[in-house]
Amino acid sequence: MTDLAPRFAAAVRLTTEAAALALRLWPRPGAASATLKGTQDWLTEADGAVEAFLSEALAREFPQDGFQGEETGKGRRGALRWVVDPIDGTSNYARGASRWCVSVGLIADRTPVIGVLVAPALGETYAACQGRGATLNGVAIHAAATTDPQRAMIEVGWSPRRPNAEYQAIAARVMAQGAMLRAGGSGAMGLADVASGRLDGYIESHINLWDVAAALAILAESGATVSGFMDGPGPETGDAIMAAAPGLAAAIRIAAG
After folding, report:
1. Domain 149-256 maps to which CATH number in 3.40.190.80, 3.30.70.260, 3.40.1190.20, 3.10.450.330?
2. Which of 102, 114, 124, 172 is the most exposed place for a label (fewest CB within 10 A)?
3. Phi, psi angles (nearest 5°) of residue 246
4. CB 216 within 8 A of CB 105
5. pTM of this structure
6. 3-state secondary structure of 150
7. What pLDDT, in 10s, does the model give residues 48-90?
């Protein structure tokens, strides 16, 4: 197995640098400063700049590794593949809101082994490396110990790729269990919040690999229960995802449908 330590250190350093670049380009609060690729699918100047920075920097340090970015797709090929979402939560970012992050994950075959999320406007860095645990700003994190849905907070992510009725049905099932419903506009950060125990569950009926590659590594190291996103079509075409505090996994699977 490849020694992951140099890649983990580089991932933390480069994601932090990329997030600082995004922060410098961050629009002021107000009407969205971006273009639309599709329904509520935003593209900003920072998306391209951050992805280009990470692609070039990772190629210099690990030329044998593959690379996939949200904006440029699959580029370099390699046994290990970096998967980057330059701005996750772009709709928030484009309006000057704070809940967004730069997401960098490393995948070995179909296993996420490194994940780093940096949310510079919040001053937060989530990081995980296979076998070394997960941290938030350097402090170890774990999924929540919640077992009662009536004490739970669950985020349901909305996707324009699925019918609104499907989202509404999931939200209704969450609330029928007595859980508090949340929606934050960043799938990566919602999943990371499950890893840290800030949320008890996250459900989305369609999400892409670049949105979850880093978060999946963080969730795995935090002890959260996660659906088999990497086992089905997720790595290629996207898929549904569910992440949960272990004691609520059965209830959240029911809510996910």
Report:
1. 3.40.190.80
2. 172
3. -50, -40
4. yes
5. 0.93
6. helix
7. 999 999 999 999 999 999 999 988 767 677 889 999 999 999 9
